[in-house]
Design brief:
heterodimer; A: about 170 residues; alpha+beta; Heat Shock Protein 90; six-stranded antiparallel sheet; 4 helices; about 30% helix; globular; B: about 110 residues; alpha/beta; Transcription Regulator spoIIAA; 7 strands
């Protein structure tokens, strides 16, 4: 079972972060996505943006389940989400095998002949197409993926004018 | 996830009851489509009207289902929600499948 650390899911609008720890299985990924959508619900995001967030994070979490823990025994996934200042920042960590950089950076397979059509390899293409910012790091024993979404019509969260603007990147 | 098939003239409509075709059900989905279409002839229309989420595993399962039909039978898709349509568009799989706005349109295109 996906185990939300908090007993009740804090609404994103209050400025709190959502932390979910769970064992890497497809059903737990589904449940964690449901928890995240509940967290985001008070923001009243446009459906298209909500769909995008769910899709990107589904691909990222499925990727951990299938590739970071290839032996099938799974392992821990840590997910932290924070909606703040017109951005949703999600950090996903796992203790699995290091991800090959080319998996993240390369364009996916693109077979067009129906006989050659890939049945996989779409995931990173979708993530790269839809995430505003994507950052992958190998920490000591962790893979860490940071995904940032710009929330165009974001109306909640703490008063962002009180936070010093970040230097331009 | 529950799938069922209905015959309309020369082809079959496969209805999907579940709201998600994701990694948790992708293999079961592919097997169910095969079981429903194995011993019938003609094109198959996948009715995605009840599906509001699909991930790349689900997309792969639909591609696999198309391949299972073999070279002489086509797999059509009908009633894609915006979220499902987006996945097909971004992966350019919308150019591989014939996609119909509604079931009526899919049936009409085939003179049924």
């Amino acid at each position: 079972m996906a185990d939300a650390r908090q007993k009740t899911i804090p609404p994103a609008q209050g400025g709190g972060a959502l932390i979910v720890n769970f064992h890497a299985t497809p059903l737990n990924v589904r449940e964690a996505l449901g928890t995240l959508l509940t967290y985001l619900a008070p923001l009243g995001l446009p459906p298209d943006q909500r769909d995008t967030i769910q899709l990107v994070l589904a691909e990222a979490l499925n990727n951990v389940t299938e590739h970071a823990y290839p032996a099938g025994a799974g392992g821990p996934i840590y997910l932290r989400a924070l909606a703040e200042c017109a951005e949703l920042t999600v950090i996903i960590r796992d203790r699995g095998v290091p991800l090959p950089a080319e998996l993240i950076l390369s364009e996916g397979k693109a077979g067009r002949d129906p006989a050659d059509l890939p049945e996989g390899g779409f995931g990173w293409h979708l993530i790269r197409s839809l995430a505003s910012t994507l950052d992958h790091n190998r920490l000591a024993r962790w893979n860490e993926l940071k995904v940032v979404f710009s929330l165009a019509r974001f109306a909640g969260g703490p008063a962002c004018h009180q936070i010093a603007p970040k230097p331009s990147e | 996830m529950q799938l069922s098939a209905r015959q309309f003239g020369p082809f079959h409509v496969v209805d999907i009851a579940g709201p998600r075709i994701d990694a948790a059900v992708a293999i079961a989905f592919k097997d169910s489509v095969r079981d429903l279409t194995d011993d019938i002839d003609g094109d198959v229309i996948l009715n995605l009207g009840a599906v509001d989420f699909i991930d790349s595993s689900g997309l792969g399962a639909i591609v696999a289902a198309m391949k299972q039909l073999g070279p002489d039978r086509r797999l059509h898709l009908a009633c894609l929600s915006p979220a499902v349509e987006k996945v097909f568009r971004l992966t350019r799989m919308d150019s591989v499948f014939t996609i119909h706005r509604s079931l009526d349109a899919a049936l009409g295109d085939h003179g049924a």
